[in-house]
Amino acid sequence: MLIYPFTSWMEFETKIGLAPDFQKDFDSVHGAGSWAKTTAALDASVEGWFDEVRVMIK
To answer: Residue 34's Cα: distance from chain center in Å?
Structure first.
């Protein structure tokens, strides 16, 4: 299973962070303002402490 914006395991293993246009793509899929709403909910529930997903199953 790969998660956007990664199209191959090699790309995933050599890339850090999300693509610069990830927020725009997220909003186009989930509706305008959904990125801000999602990140605000995350920030409120974790008191500023959160981390990226670091483990994926090949």
So the answer is: 13
**What is the distance between the alpha carbons of residues 12 and 3, in angstroms, rounded to a whole number?**
9
Pick from 19, 44, 3: nearest CA to 36 = 44
Q: For residue 36, which of 54, 18, 45, 24 has the smallest C-alpha distance?
A: 24
Domain parsing of the chain, residue ranges: 21-58
pLDDT at residue 10 is higher than 70: no
Predicted structure pTM score: 0.52
Q: What does 1-58 look like in DSSP terms, one character per residue?
A: ---TT--SHHHHHH--S--TTHHHHHHHHH-TTHHHHHHHHHHHHHTT----------
